[in-house]
Design brief:
Mean pLDDT: 77
Largest sheet: 3 strands, antiparallel
Strand content: 5-15%
Strand order of the largest sheet: 4-3-5
Number of strands: 5
Helix content: 40-55%
Order of helices and strands: HEEHEHEHHEH
Radius of gyration: 23 Å
Distance between the termini: 92 Å
């Protein structure tokens, strides 16, 4: 291949990694350092609530965190957000967000709260009987 042909191929490749509106495109596996799973995978279903820990006050200054991780902590500082909400707001695949949250969990910067599954909630009839019993006292 001639030098001119090689340069044209490199320019085509570079154009493939650039979006006119967004700028350079970063592949999801680059954000997660090639990882697709995290040790906390079982705790990070779509409705799991992510809450920033109080010790995560200076995440913007932490150079070990990616910009996406800083954004996750900042968004969860005032109000808990679900994994699905974070993925939608950050416009990232859910798998990538799970890995990033897993890293934040390991660092102690966030905690995850899972809602109680409906099967584990008390039956409405049992609650009514308890209320009726209390009223009878």
């Amino acid at each position: 291949m001639s030098d001119q042909g090689g340069r044209a191929a490199r320019e085509r490749e570079a154009a493939r990694w650039f979006d006119d509106e967004a700028g350079p495109v970063v592949r999801p596996y680059a954000m997660t350092r090639g990882r697709t799973r995290t040790a906390a995978e079982g705790r990070l279903d779509l409705i799991a609530q992510v809450i920033a820990e109080s010790r995560a006050a200076k995440t913007a200054e932490d150079r070990t965190l990616s910009p996406e991780q800083v954004e996750i902590v900042e968004r969860c500082r005032d109000v808990p957000l679900s994994v699905a909400e974070l993925a939608a707001e950050l416009d990232l695949p859910v798998g990538v967000v799970r890995v990033l949250i897993g890293d934040l969990l390991d660092a102690g910067l966030v905690r995850v709260s899972r809602p109680v599954p409906p099967a584990e909630l008390p039956d409405e009839q049992v609650l009514r009987e308890v209320i009726d019993g209390l009223r009878a006292l």
